[in-house]
Structures are given as C-alpha cells and as structure tokens.
Specification:
The chain has about 150 residues and is mostly helical. It has seven helices and three strands, in the order H-E-H-H-E-H-H-E-H-H. The protein has a single domain (about 1-140), classed as Rossmann fold, CATH 3.40.50. Helices cover about 50% and strands about 10% of the residues.
C-alpha cells in the first residue's frame, strides 16, 4: 500500500493497544521501541518526509491491564516519545502530536466504551484533531513537494 501510494506525510495513531498488554511487550519502553522502528521505516524505507505520532489517550477501562497502570504507562510513553522525537535523529522528520482539548474533556463525554472517541462529540473532536495533524504535516513539507 505505501509503495503504491507513496505518501509524503503519515499521521500515526498507534501504541495504545500495545500498551494494554501484560509483561515487557506492553511496557512503555517496548512500545516506544516498536513505534520508533515504524517511524524510522516509514522515513528510510518508504521515503515518507514527515511522520506525526499522536499521543496515546488515557482510558477509563482496559482489556488486560489495571486502568491506573495503563494510564500511568500512557503518560510515561507520551513523555518518552515526546523526548525521543525532539532528538536530532528524528527532529527533521518526526513530530509528537498532542490531541489538544480532547484530554481535558471528561472521558465520558467523548467515549462510551471509555477507550475510543466513539460518541458523536468525541468522534467529531477526534476527526478535527486528526485533520489538523494532516494539515500541519502537509505545511511542513518542502516547497518542492506537492502534497
């Protein structure tokens, strides 16, 4: 798919389900390593110019981990990823994206299942934020690239 489409920018909203695993594979460090591998591959192997990684959202329920542990790990993963993507080896092609306003809104107003933004209001906010990420990434492309 990527080879055929050849996108210049990609917005990733990944990591939350991986973080909800038990053991090392669900640790913030392991999830960070997997995400960075994906970001590096998109840039180096598929010539994606700009990759945005969206912060992992808090949850009100989980599938495997205790909710408080998941939310602590989500907070930690977001911090680790923000720091990593500000490092020189990533800074030119990868950006940490914050879902501004979604996390400050009560969870039950944007999520019926307490995991996904699945209410009308929640999905609307989420889609607006994803569209902003896409527009922002397109603006960051070099002038010689047609998005």
């Amino acid at each position: 798919m990527l080879t055929a489409f050849q996108p210049h920018c990609v917005v990733l909203d990944v990591g939350s389900n991986d973080l909800d695993k038990l053991g090392y594979s669900g640790s913030p460090t392991a999830v960070k390593d997997d995400i960075l591998t994906l970001i590096e591959s998109l840039h180096h192997d598929y010539s994606v110019i700009k990759v945005f990684w969206c912060q992992v959202l808090q949850r009100g329920q989980t599938r495997r981990k205790v909710v408080e542990c998941y939310n602590k790990d989500a907070y930690e993963l977001n911090g680790i990823m923000k720091d990593c993507l500000e490092q020189p080896q990533y800074k030119n092609y990868a950006t940490f994206w914050v879902h501004r306003g979604l996390c400050s809104t009560p969870l039950n107003s944007w999520s019926r299942d307490k995991i996904h933004p699945d209410t009308k209001e929640g999905m609307h906010k989420y889609m607006v934020l994803i569209c902003k990420a896409v527009k922002c990434s397109a603006k960051m492309l070099p002038m010689t690239v047609n998005p």
